[in-house]
Amino acid sequence: MSVSEKYRKDLEEICAHRYDLGGDLWTSEDKRILKGSPFSLIESVQYLLEIGMKPEEPLLMEAADLLFSLWREDGRFQVYPKGALYPCQTIHVLNTLGRLGYAKDRRLQRTFQHLLEIQHEDGGWRCQKFSYGHGPETEFSNPFPTLIALDAFRYTTWINQKEELNEAIEFLLRHWTTKLPLGPCHYGIGTLFSQVEYPFRTYNLFYYVYVLSYYDCAKGDPRFLDALSQLRSKTEDGQIVVERSVPKLSKLSFCKKGEKSALATMKYNEILKNLKHQ
């Protein structure tokens, strides 16, 4: 498999969890692709890509085939055998397939269009699932799925072209100012958000700055620059130090908590490169 010797043990550790849930490819027997965190199918594919596995590798092509098998004609993905289909689920699958190089696939083109069709009035995306009741904050979009959606749109020709995406950016920049828990899932900006997490698994400062750095309307905005300054203040000798990780990922060398990460630093350097091209 196309992974350097440096990350060979990481590859073995990730693959060791392939059958944890009773099915293949980090899924349950009924193919629940979001189950089993932090070694769900969606997350495990991300780790493999991070350590350098090529999308053309048979393992990742199998994963892509499985994900596409869940696609529906209206653009959504049926990630559970039964139950409601939520935008956040579709967004997770879309972003993963985009990272695998399938953004131009006609099925994903329909999914991207579907997201634009269901975009919330505040510019983001939200699900009709109210785990925390129906307070006024739940009238807003969910910031984290919105961030992932913008991550996915990076792989399209629509980036920096569609006003709808600028509206999503503005929604996230406003959140930087208010920092209040927003959306039915209550995503806020606080202590945990400010801790540098890698790989990108949750709504956090590093992922926030990384995605927004690809969008022209964010690059010169004082709110984005403030977030960037906070991230920069956490680097050591220009390198990213992982501040937060889950214990189950402790065996992975590329994202050790409390240590400098070469691969995370590559992501940080992408941010700096994006800003040079304003």
Automatic annotation (TrEMBL):
InterPro entries: Terpenoid_cyclase/PrenylTrfase. This is Prenyltransferase and squalene oxidase repeat-containing protein. It comes from Proteiniclasticum ruminis.
